[in-house]
Fold these 4 entries.
Entry 1:
Amino acid sequence: MKKLLLLLAGVGLLTGVQTSVAGDTYFGVTGGFARTIWAPCWTSDGYADAGNGAFLLEMRAQLPYKEHLFVVPFVSYLSANHTTSYRTGGYEVYDIHTERTYFREISAGVHMHYHLPILGRAIYVGGGPALRFHESGRRSVWAPHQMDTHSGTSPALCILGGWATRIGEKFVTFFEPQVIFSPDAIDRQETYYPPDRLSLQMGILWK
């Protein structure tokens, strides 16, 4: 419930920004796919049974700060789910145990975007800080009411790039890869910090 209230508050904030600031301010939505890294090293999948792929939705505003430099506050939501089975017991007598896991996250932060002086300012780079509110859980398919859950909050730093295309005077579409780093990105079954994340997002902005 707290995370839902935070998401609704973020929507209200971005809507207020969009309606109260004139000029070249844009408001928009994005969707994409994220690849999570559940390990302290990017060369390992970490705990792969936690699920490494996730869908991502985001709402953002784009406010002009200086020439070709923009402030971009945002609120995003991510959800990953996975089902895995493994054998318990000996070679001759064993049981098949099946678990379902999930990871949900709401992020809120502010990025800076700078449009490079090439290709008509279509290419931009940037990044910035965010705060990640996350919750993970796992349960057996045979005991759906016995859920093991953990939640927490972690700061993050994002590095991004993108390609923006203007459509008339009112709309801008964009494609944006992001890399997000968080401290202590370790298997969520042992410690409960969110993972590093690589995401690809596409979206549209409008005045």
Note: The chain has one helix and eight strands.
Entry 2:
Amino acid sequence: MQNLSQSTRFKYTGTALPGNAAVVVIFTTVQLGWGANFLATNGIQRILVSINNSQSGTLNAYQSSDRGANWVKIDTLAVAAAAANTERINDYFVTQYADWKLEWVNDATPQTVFTVNIASAAERTVAN
């Protein structure tokens, strides 16, 4: 496989508007069918995710060393509703994981706006 080098955008294919307590996979190397160590093999140091959400929720990041048979939570972040026409940008260092996924857990109120953008970065330094 070729090295993805500088930056690659990934399409979000999850639920358009998550409902109450819905769990939505934002990104995962396992469900995309890539081999283990896909991120490191392709020079991907970080995954950048921006979300515009009308209601609150939680972002949970996981890593797996057995192709997703067991996931270990490595980060959790409570996310408030975004102000009108704004996005929250989240930056995850991922190159050290065989597999990685990010989930959104919606709070009790269904979303009326839920826009997700995902990109990889080859640079190790954190985005500003």
Note: The radius of gyration is 14 Å.
Entry 3:
Amino acid sequence: MAIVMVAAINHYFVVHPQGVMPGQGFLKEFIKPFIELERLSAQMVPLSDHEREMAPSRMMMLQHICDERVGPKMTRDKNP
């Protein structure tokens, strides 16, 4: 989760280069898919057959969102 928080703060400053530190609302929304992915992973054992069939597609979607959020970001060019 430390990597996620660093990625959240980095993303915030890429989007808001003149901003102050991100607030709880921004951080909550940014980490939501990571938390859901971990929660879903932890629940795999007690799932019903139907839920177990649906979980991989949900997990793949969440993993894609998470990968995009912690992956390399292009920063805005600063004007001299």
Note: The radius of gyration is 16 Å.
Entry 4:
Amino acid sequence: MPEYRFRIGDAFPEQEPVARFVTVLAFIHNDWRRTMQAMVDSTGAPGGEGARLLSFRQLVGYSHEATEFLTGSRKRYEEVDTFVSSLNAEALGQYDRVFTTLAPIERWMRKQRDITFHYPKMVRESYQADQEAIATALTAAADETSSITLADTHAGISLDFADAVAVHLLGFKLPEEQEELRRLVQALREAAYALGVFVVAAVSTYLGSCEPGAIATVE
């Protein structure tokens, strides 16, 4: 596969909406790819369960943010909408697939985004266990046995009990609910694939539209 080299200001001028749009698409692609790779790499590794949980929660948040960005950008900028509409049929099909795959879990994703990127709030004035996310999670995890390991270095410290509690922030506590969780994970996988196809098509199309001489191909 070829490598393309360029001065960023020549290939992605900041005043162009489509240049900014494609740049954020690249952010999204990198975040999804790296997060999913981190999930794979954590399998079987020490502390891997906690690392997979963190990656999964991040991916859920990124998924919600990605759909918000895609729809919002097309609404705000005619140039972006025209650019997306000009992509080939496969890319547009995968674009639609991102939304159709994630639509059934949109509400759940939005809630998880807030929990992942905003630590659970504590409301002292009107505390009720069933109205505070962290209290609800602690209640659900109350009978589980977990651990804390302290050490002289940060690398050696392990607060495993927090991972055990964080699992319950996902909202799946009963055995029969685990199938629903697997369904959600599969939806995220399918959406990630579809988004990848769409982003690559968008980036390739954009590169082809750049001014002659702005992009150099390195074989």
Note: Residues 207 and 215 are 8 Å apart (CA to CA).
